Amino acid sequence: MKTLVLIRHAKSSWKDASLGDHQRPLNRRGERNRWQMADHLNRLPLRVEQVYSSSATRARLTAEALAPALSDQPPHYEDELYCFDAASLIHWLRRRSGQVNAIALVGHNPALTELANWLDPEPLENLPTCAVLLLHLPITAWAELDRGRAQRRQLWLAREL
Question: Is the whole-model pTM more than 0.90?
């Protein structure tokens, strides 16, 4: 059994037009939500072996707040996770070590919503900003990742905290 936690980055700011998409920070709501979600996750028995994050500023900031609530390890930032399609995430996940049983992934839409819907037979209209989706996968190796095999365990929304 594998555990996958999908986390969409907190709400980003569009205030500084001189910044490229990769450099956009969080806005006030995003800052507030990331700490609210971190506080919420701290109260849960949810633990992962590793938190991986897109290298984009908004994802990094989200991962920095949430990773201590999820893992004893610092987050890993990967340029490859700065993507917007589920196929890239599926390819990345299938290459993970079979010895790692629980992963959290901080990333972007539409990739995360598409991935969630590819994995989980229960459709999800949208994974909102700073949402955390917990999935269990009845597989022994990440290479076995396949459509419709996940079991949704929980969805936490920042706006509901």
Answer: yes
